[in-house]
Write a structure and sequence with these properties.
By secondary structure, the chain is α+β, with helices and mostly antiparallel strands. 44% of the residues lie in helices and 18% in strands. Strands 3, 4, 5, 6, 7, 8, 9, 10, 11, 12, 13, 14 and 15 form a 13-stranded antiparallel beta sheet that branches. Strands 1-2 form a two-stranded antiparallel ribbon. Strand 5 and strand 6 form a beta hairpin. The protein starts with 20 loop residues before the first helix and ends in a 13-residue tail after the last helix. 30% of the residues are buried. InterPro entries: SCO6880-like (IPR049978).
Length: 529
């Protein structure tokens, strides 16, 4: 029997009949004019003010599609201001012919403040890991491409073991006192058949049987339409405020921060390979990260990049053969003055072209180049969830459709977690006492939340970490398709997985950046943590 994980609670528990502090303060402040009117005997004014107070009550307390009405009002005003000012539309500098440097990222929206550095040589291969600096959020991040065998054919015991490994990873990140957030990004991409085409070009014989060629061509067409590829990344994010002191002890500057990140990468990689059973963990270099970013915005560009990489490898092999024993000699194998040497091929995606040529954020979807995306958050069910429950969300409904999601684990400091645990326990006790004195019976859900709030303190005392997990899923289709229809299919897939979808209206660009581009962008981060 699969183990169900349901030991989680709401982020905040209202201590006064479910109301939090700002809601209660707003209602009390707006009710004062009503009492003043009653005291002075102005009954008509008191009735009018009572009607206004009821309107404030509805706006403040009653949620609308998961958000308070005040939140919708602020988001609508911000979106309207951005539309009037032209902030919702993006045009890259390269598309306008103004790109001054091909190494400088030119990304839209929440990715605008991203800068990518090459870290010092690392390991036996001397690879230079890409270090992502977010100037807007003041964070540093590194991303690893991971390969996991999946949970579809494992038993309940192995799933529970990997769940314990995930908890161990979060506890490890909390104990470092540096890692602020761990993100897992997964993309299910329609197979473009690029690798198969290269294999067939290299192994197909010109004098082969016509029937065998026809069968291979038919298989290629049928399998390509029905196949998907899964790409997964793990990203760790460190805020600048936590990084400064540790970097000062390691040499300051970019090198000092790179040394701190390299140490964290080693700890995280050991936990990924051990507790979470990852078979491969490869920390991305700058060209690899640029390719992941580019294919996030334009899934159809991957086939051309794969072909260019294959041509470059073949050209390098030919150049090395032509150069002989001394490939570094003048004129040997450099493609200059040697007609037998093939020209050099620039197969890597420059950061100036890693983003879209144009993008526009509308209220219900996000348009980037020739693609459109719809994003939604996932609400945790009261009945709990099992490991691998999000698998239906990644299943495309039609060929050419891409699904992606990010599962983020923002980690609270131990002092913050202890303070919030004490506040939650106090709120639960006070709310229970107030209901008992008022003669209001507690509902089953309220009793469950109170018990979980009281049990949280014991878990923190045993050394566990506190996190506020959330997930964002996105569907990406060509702009010629009916994006709203695919958005409804995404919602249906989320419900089929046992969760409740909540469309990220007015924030589609941020939802896409967080769930489809593995650069460490977070929905829960407003600035430096």
């Amino acid at each position: 029997m699969a183990l169900v994980f349901d030991d989680y609670s709401r982020d905040r528990i209202g201590w006064f009949f479910g109301l939090n502090g700002w809601q209660l303060g707003t209602l009390v402040a707006t009710s004062l004019p009503v009492f003043f009117a009653v005291r002075s005997g102005s009954w008509l004014a008191a009735a009018a003010l009572s009607g206004a107070w009821l309107l404030v009550l509805l706006v403040t307390v009653v949620p609308v599609r998961g958000r308070p009405a005040t939140g919708w009002l602020m988001a609508s005003l911000s979106y309207l201001l951005g539309t009037v000012a032209g902030w919702t539309q993006f045009r890259s500098r390269a598309a306008m012919g103004r790109a001054s440097s091909m190494d400088a990222p030119d990304l839209p929206g929440a990715l605008h403040g991203i800068e990518v550095h090459d870290g010092p040589p690392r390991g036996a291969s001397l690879s230079r890991v890409a270090i992502v600096q977010d100037h807007a959020a003041r964070t540093w991040a590194v991303t690893a491409a991971v390969v996991h065998p999946g949970l579809g054919f494992v038993d309940a015991e192995e799933r529970a073991h990997q769940a314990v490994g995930l908890g161990g990873l979060l506890d490890l990140a909390s104990h470092t006192e540096l890692i602020d957030e761990v993100l897992f990004t997964v993309r299910t991409v329609p197979d473009d058949g690029a690798e198969r085409d290269l294999w067939m070009q290299r192994h197909r014989r010109a004098d082969g049987p016509l029937l065998a060629r026809a069968v291979n061509d038919d298989l290629r067409e049928a399998l390509t339409q029905a196949s998907v590829r899964t790409e997964s990344w793990a990203t760790i994010v460190v805020p600048e405020t936590r990084m400064t002191r540790a970097a000062r002890q390691c040499g300051r500057g970019l090198d000092g921060r790179a040394r701190v990140l390299y140490g964290l990468m080693g700890e995280v990689e050991a936990q990924l390979r051990g507790g979470m059973a990852m078979t491969e963990v490869t920390w991305l270099t700058s060209p690899q990260l640029a390719l992941a970013c580019r294919t996030g915005f334009a899934p159809g560009d991957r086939a051309g990049v794969v072909a260019a990489l294959a041509d470059r490898d073949q050209a390098d092999s030919t150049r090395a053969a032509v150069g002989g024993a001394d490939p570094g000699a003048a004129g040997a194998g450099d493609g200059v003055g040697d007609v037998s040497a093939p020209p050099r091929i620039a197969a890597d995606v420059p950061w100036a072209l890693a983003g879209p040529a144009g993008a526009e954020a509308t209220s219900r979807h996000y348009t980037h180049d020739a693609w459109s995306s719809v994003s939604a958050t996932i609400k945790l069910p009261d009945s709990g969830a099992v490991m691998g429950a999000l698998a239906p969300v990644l299943t495309p409904s039609e060929p050419g459709e891409r699904r992606s999601f990010v599962v983020a684990y923002p980690i609270l400091r131990q002092s913050t977690a202890d303070r919030q645990s004490a506040t939650r326990e106090w709120s639960a006790d006070l709310g229970e006492e107030l209901r008992a004195k008022a003669g209001v019976k507690m509902r089953a859900r309220q009793r469950t939340e109170a018990l979980r709030a009281r049990g949280l303190d014991g878990k923190l005392a045993r050394g566990h970490s506190m996190t506020r997990p959330y997930a964002v899923c996105t569907v990406t289709v060509p702009s010629t398709a009916r994006v709203e229809e695919f958005g409804r299919r995404l919602d249906a897939s989320v419900r089929r997985a046992g969760f409740a979808p909540l469309r990220l209206d007015l924030s589609q660009d941020l939802g896409f950046a967080a769930s489809a581009v593995p650069l460490g962008v977070s929905l829960s981060r407003r600035g430096d943590a």
